Amino acid sequence: MRDLALDPVTGDLVLTAGRLRLTEPGAESVAQRLRLRLKLWHGEWFADQTVGIPYLTQVLGKVPQSQVEALLRAAILSCPGVATLLSFVFTVSPERVASLAFSVRAVDGGVVDIDDFSVGGA
């Protein structure tokens, strides 16, 4: 499945020669879906307020790290196109900034590495 390509830094639609670009099937598409899934806060999307990560209620605050990790692992594994979770590192700095780095195998066999995700960030 292909999607409209988004710039991973700005989130803007990618234009090539004045035309919208589609993601390549496989790793590029899965990586974009994972980033979008993890960025969407529960209740944020007007069309379906039941989707998204419950950052306010189950991630931020005094929540056991194991519970947060389980929630994030489940969100990653349930993403369309993801076959297996190969690695997962969740860290919280002394300044209480949470970050996530992980690697998945896509259903087409490709590997997707995301090593710079700020958990709960905008």
Q: Secondary-structure blueprint of this entry?
A:
Elements: E1 15-16, E2 19-20, H1 27-39, H2 55-58, H3 65-77, E3 82-92, E4 98-106, E5 111-118
Antiparallel strand pairs: 1-2, 3-4, 4-5
Describe, in plain words, how this protein is organized in 3D:
By secondary structure, the protein is α+β, with helices and mostly antiparallel strands. Helices cover 25% and strands 26% of the residues. The chain has helices spanning 27-39, 55-58, 65-77, and strands at residues 15-16, 19-20, 82-92, 98-106, 111-118. A hairpin with a 2-residue loop joins strand 1 (15-16) and strand 2 (19-20). The radius of gyration is 15 Å and the shape is globular. The two termini are 26 Å apart.
